[in-house]
Amino acid sequence: MQMPFLPGSDAALFLDFDGTLVGIAETPEAVKVPDGLVPLLAQLHDALDGAVAIVSGRPVDVLDRFLAPLRLPTAGEHGAHRRDAEGQLMERAPTDLSEVIAAANALANRHTGLLVERKQAAVALHYRLAPELEQLCLDTMAETVGDRPEFELLHGKCVVEIKPAGTNKGTAITAYLKEPPFIDRKPFFFGDDTTDESGFAVAQAFGGLGIKVGPGSTRATARVDGPAAVYEWLKQAADALAAPGTAPR
Ligand SMILES: O=P(O)(O)OC[C@H]1O[C@H](O[C@H]2O[C@H](CO)[C@@H](O)[C@H](O)[C@H]2O)[C@H](O)[C@@H](O)[C@@H]1O
């Protein structure tokens, strides 16, 4: 497995949030943004002429709150919503989630430790505080999706999500790579979870690098240990891009 080399001024950075920029916490609201991360992302955004984006399962407004005052280009809810480099937000037409929410809430009301996270386009059922309920959560959400083509089931880290079919992190990164300032740049995508695999495939298909954060099988061709190693790589990248003699693109 290759260690990720540092980017040149022709790079575009795509960064997952949970498990990549911030460590995993017991609940979604309990994550801690490392000191120095926001100014570091702002520095990289400037150094790469704006070609830095967050690509996450979280809603865009939640990511903005954690990274305030920075408002980066951001794809949220696994690509269902995407804010481009000009600040324009593109959202998929809403899908009726009422049955999904009802099923997730009914299960959470019957079992201590389950948490329902209601997003705009998706619903996540978290079982981190009750890991013995994994299979029950999977079965319940799979049954709710049934064979309805408008939904897709995702199984992430201690979470089962139902999201709209047809968008994922790969489609979001592809869309960015067709627009300025990302176009014709070498994409680097860091992610830690199974839901990041579509993003690794696209980054590598466009001549860039997929970088898996932490353990687990992956199609990514590079790996780092965890969020602390991602932070260190970002710091080294910012220093290298600021070094005298780094050719601007
Ligand atoms: O695509 P990501 O940025 O990695 O987001 C994936 C999901 O992350 C959040 O859940 C995960 O992180 C929580 C906080 O560490 C953790 O408690 C949970 O077990 C993880 O699954 C977020 O809540 C979801 O909406 C995201 O889809």
UniProtKB/TrEMBL annotation:
Belongs to the trehalose phosphatase family. It is an enzyme of class 3 (hydrolase). This is Trehalose 6-phosphate phosphatase. InterPro entries: HAD-like_sf (IPR036412), HAD-SF_hydro_IIB (IPR006379), HAD_sf (IPR023214), OTSB-like (IPR044651), Trehalose_PPase (IPR003337). It catalyses: alpha,alpha-trehalose 6-phosphate + H2O = alpha,alpha-trehalose + phosphate. One of its GO terms (molecular function) is metal ion binding. Its EC number is 3.1.3.12. It comes from the Bacteria.
